[in-house]
Design brief:
Number of domains: 2
Radius of gyration: 18 Å
Strand content: under 5%
Distance between the termini: 27 Å
Shape: elongated
Number of helices: 5
Helix content: 40-55%
Structural class: mainly alpha
Length: 116
């Protein structure tokens, strides 16, 4: 998270040097109206894993689960449970030396791809 804050501060300094009005980039400004895709598409790393930086799985079904997990209630709880199961399977695959590049990043990964 600190790295992202540094990137934001560096970007603010660059915009200031270009003469852009500070009201356009001040801290706390909501820029979400300019990003029309689901918020998870703006992530490089999986936001559901906070213990370490894990690249975001480029699989639509997995990303749908991430978006659903952000919802409150039964639907969000269900999605969180699904994510935990998938992440456990991924951890087991990594521990046994299986490359996730084939199994998760594409839909050609057999069992795991069917899970997500």
């Amino acid at each position: 998270m600190e790295a992202m804050h540094k990137l934001a501060e560096d970007a603010r300094k660059k915009l200031e040097s270009l003469g852009i009005d500070e009201v356009q980039y001040q801290a706390g400004k909501d820029l979400s109206t300019y990003f029309k895709k689901p918020a998870v598409k703006a992530c490089d790393y999986d936001p559901s894993i906070t213990s370490r930086s894990v690249p975001l799985v480029q699989n639509e079904a997995y990303q749908l689960l991430l978006r659903t997990a952000m919802e409150k209630g039964k639907k969000g709880a269900w999605a969180k449970g699904q994510l935990e199961g998938i992440q456990t399977t991924m951890e087991q695959m990594i521990a046994t030396g299986v490359s996730l590049g084939v199994h998760v990043m594409t839909n050609q990964g057999g069992k795991l791809a069917r899970l997500i």
